[in-house]
Amino acid sequence: MDSVSLSEVTVIKGTTHLGFMHSFRQPFCGVKISPKFYLSKVDGPKAISSSSNTKSQFVYGGGSIAATSDSGYKMNGVNLKSRTLMSSAVKERSLLDAYDDEYGGVIVDHGKLPSNPYAFASMLRASLSDWRRKGKKGVWLKLPVEQSELVPIAIKEGFEYHHAEKGYVMLTYWIPEEEPSMLPANASHQVGVGGFVLNQHKEVLVVQEKYCAPSITGLWKLPTGFINESEEIFSGAVREVKEETGVDTEFSEVIAFRHAHNVAFEKSDLFFICMLRPLSDKIIIDALEIKAAKVNVTRVFIRMLQLYMLQDGPDYNDCCVFQWMPLAEFVEQPMIRGDKMFKRVIEICEARLSHRYCGLSPHRLVSTFDGKPSSLYYNVVDDDHDPSHSNCSTEFYR
Ligand SMILES: NC(=O)C1=CN([C@@H]2O[C@H](COP(=O)(O)OP(=O)(O)OC[C@H]3O[C@@H](n4cnc5c(N)ncnc54)[C@H](O)[C@@H]3O)[C@@H](O)[C@H]2O)C=CC1
């Protein structure tokens, strides 16, 4: 027998739909299945329905399943929609594993998803009915990349994309029809840091990026970058500066932050400008990211020598002039002079150096709200009414 319809399965097996649902828990083709079900196996690749209402199709083993626009699924051409897959016996045994969340919703256990798309399709539908009956609200369905064939099935059931990471896509479904969805949206911001590193000679650490927008080509700018997941602003700033220039620094304060919108992938951008104390004036340029950093001639020679020894041949364009730029020279660059943000940032940094301004320092604490260790950024201006305790009255350079 080349293929078999659902009704044939039922007739041949002489069993109820329960038997059929059991089969969903097994890989469909060319694999171990129960002896009973073996009679009704589908053992060859089947033509997928080419009817115009077919939206998506999946090939599973030698069989195939297609989501159709009339909210049904076709398995080797068999429409599964109208079948009474939801008999109470089936319902009992065909729900997805899920647990309640604290907002009246459910989170599907992605570690226990059926491997068979047929099974998933019917279990998802049965589960949605069950959750609706129980008055559940939001449904979170995480589908690992290894089971990406389940995504169109869930979408067909009305799930929406929430967010995706390398290893999975998160889908959501809001059940109450009478209420607007209360599910929180995906993360709305990216978080960047910029390091303002000033040495005791009033020179600022500047870089030229190898890859940048034409509008800022040739600009000597502060090292900037993005915070990694679970990374602190203070350590991210130190890391970025180190990665881009090789200079070790110590975090001092967040002196300002900028909030901008529609920056990347329509996300907003929080840019924290951090003052950092240099711990060394050595420069080891990340040839991939930085085109140049100002160094003197001896350093250029040493750097070229390093590149020559470490690589097949040095890329002289990636070599550099001057590591530190006098602050006055940095400010004089037309792009900086004409930029309200950087002009103001420099004024603030200068105010901080002369104790006329106070930035925010991180203080580690655990909030009882979520029990998570976190950093609260604030300045200590008047601790115990002793001005010497203020983080801003201390000298920037130790
Ligand atoms: N670059 C600047 O002069 C300024 C940056 N900022 C802020 O600094 C933070 C970081 O921004 P930037 O340093 O400009 O980030 P960026 O856009 O330069 O990205 C950082 C690094 O990611 C990599 N990258 C980014 N997109 C890539 C792609 N499509 N393909 C391959 N590699 C890619 C590159 O290595 C790049 O150097 C943001 O919060 C931004 O608002 C603020 C003002 C000026």
From TrEMBL:
PROSITE patterns: NUDIX (PS51462), NUDIX_BOX (PS00893). Residues 188-347 form the Nudix hydrolase domain. InterPro entries: NUDIX_hydrolase-like_dom_sf, Nudix_hydrolase6-like, NUDIX_hydrolase_CS, NUDIX_hydrolase_dom, Pre-Nudix. It is an enzyme of class 3 (hydrolase). It catalyses: NADH + H2O = reduced beta-nicotinamide D-ribonucleotide + AMP + 2 H(+); ADP-D-ribose + H2O = D-ribose 5-phosphate + AMP + 2 H(+); NAD(+) + H2O = beta-nicotinamide D-ribonucleotide + AMP + 2 H(+). Its EC number is 3.6.1.13, 3.6.1.22. Mediates the hydrolysis of some nucleoside diphosphate derivatives, possibly using both NADH and ADP-ribose as substrates. This is Nudix hydrolase. It comes from Arabidopsis thaliana. The lineage of its organism: Eukaryota, Viridiplantae, Streptophyta, Embryophyta, Tracheophyta.
